[in-house]
Amino acid sequence: MDTHQRLEALIRGERLALARAITLVESRKAEDRKAATELMIGVDKHLQSIPHQNTGNQLPARWTMAITGPPGVGKSTFIDQLGRQLIDRGHRVAVLAVDPSSARSGGSILGDKTRMQVLSTRDEAFIRPSPSGVTHGGTNSATKEAIDLCLAAGYDTVLVETVGVGQNEIAVSDLVDWTLLLLMGRSGDDLQGIKRGIVEAADMVLVNKADGEGYEPALETQRYYQSALSLFPPHSLPGWKVPCLAISAVQEVGWDSFWSAFEELQALPRLADWVHHKRTDQRVFNFYRRLNQALLEHWSSSHSKSAYADLESALRSGQLSPAQAVSESLLAWGFEDSGEKGL
Ligand SMILES: Nc1nc2c(ncn2[C@@H]2O[C@H](COP(=O)(O)OP(=O)(O)OP(=O)(O)O)[C@@H](O)[C@H]2O)c(=O)[nH]1
Ligand SMILES: [Mg+2]
Prior knowledge:
single chain; about 350 residues; alpha/beta; Rossmann fold; 2 domains
């Protein structure tokens, strides 16, 4: 299949074409890289050609959202419920589960599909667990490409599930329009090991499992975060105050407030502008990210492992400083040594 056929099938919304395209962009094989690049050029052209319909008080025609939070907090269950409600509101929903813990549990595909039991049976939904190649950021190097492929295939809402535990987790918010942080109720006011940066990167915070015995602890945690959030710097979208709501992914608790918050968001006069700027910045960010990746790949394919080993042992023994090692690497690469600062 050539690029043109791949792109046509993708844009027609063929599920198999989408699944294969994601596999292609995730592939590390040299021959696939070329085909993937060609495909992504076509996908970008296609996405750029779709007019922005975000006039008036509504979310943009296409909306991408990260659902992030500690392991076991209920992300998949929440997405199952949210996805169902989005479909009922006329959306087509793609879910990318970039989830290291599903890799840990072994049967990631089954694992996450069973937790998204309802969604996985709906024609309007596409679910893609992708446990392989997960970087420390919880996203894998092809997450952005996979998001764009889903959009090109006609899914107007793309939800990315990722575990938010490390500092690098902030990275996922650079790939999407909106970041939703899911927490759960705990007695006491500990931060659940959540770093401040992760909370700062959230556009909305939900305290899940606000049902049964979890109800009171959820409210307590909600109050705690509400007051913590009020001390944060203002959100970059004028008029938006990051809400913290208690919710249950399995019961009818908190969903009215959740949808009201979205209505409030949609009514903000600067929303369309804000999204536009964010996406424009992300295009530039994505260029640097890909360039970094390409340079590293190029470096490791064109240099033997032993060259690395030599550099590493020289670093370990103190013979070379990290700055010297960078200079030597650049020289070996054919760049003039302009000093580390030059790059
Ligand atoms: N009581 C209650 N249980 C919930 C709720 N949401 C999820 N659970 C349960 O919590 C457990 C973990 O839910 P998941 O949806 O798999 O959580 P997750 O955050 O996706 O987990 P990982 O992907 O492993 O990080 C499951 O047993 C769910 O049934 C909720 O709102 N209330
Ligand atoms: Mg999950």
